[in-house]
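Hi, here's the filled form for the chain we discussed.

Project: internal
Contact: R.S.
Residues: 281
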Amino acid sequence: MKPPKRLQSLVEEGLIDTVVRQLMSGKEAMVYVVRSGERTLCAKVYKEATQRSFRQAVDYTENRRVKNTRQARAMAKGTRFGRQAQESAWQSAEVDALYRLVAAGVRVPAPVNFCDGVLLMELVADADGNAAPRLNDVVFTADEARAHHKTLLDEVVRMLGAGVVHGDLSEFNILLGTDGPVIIDLPQAVDAAGNNHARRMLLRDVANLRGFFGGFAPELLTTQYGLEIWDLYERGLLHPGAALTGVFEGDAGVVDVDDVMREIDDALFEESARRLRMQAV
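And the returned structure, exactly as it came back:
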């Protein structure tokens, strides 16, 4: 196919040879299958941030550092240059997270290059070499659901060990590759230690996994892996391969009403996004 305008510079630079086809279109990016020499890759072309909720962006970008002080001041003032710098930082966050997680052995696509707002990365494929399906497009047996759920909990633990919380993990941004699930879409990834919303986001990520796989293996619906994982993390006892039980009996403490209301808002936001994703399928 004819290269889209945003990919033309990558063709001219020799980073990609041809654009095979469009793979998907989401609210934040367009993804294409491309060829680079003998390799078949994904090209993720980021869209403008006009469809992102400001409140959501603030939650995700809390305590993200910008080395350039001029950019930091402009971002704080909300100038045009500042908005451009903020968008660039948002995109770079996914690239940085991917490199960090690949180094930690997390099952994510390996990044290849980042140029002009386009992320080139490994194409996650199925057994036939085609682009792997998202989990929400696959029906599982109870045994398969349990196995994939455990695999993904292990990945959540490994991510947390690397100091990263996905922040938007669900069946819509996990692909089923030839050797199991692969986690994608990380521009909203947060620093586990530096973001005050990290705990809430991790609990939501794990609850999304529980809800999806619990549809195939109902006994998962009563588990409390999120609370268990975060408790071990806070106590410095979390490590890859940690034996998790899914049982947690902790002190509920004082209820934070603001946090509860934010959870409700997040649930409504996620349901709206979920409907949009389903319409796009």
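Let me know if anything looks off before we file it.
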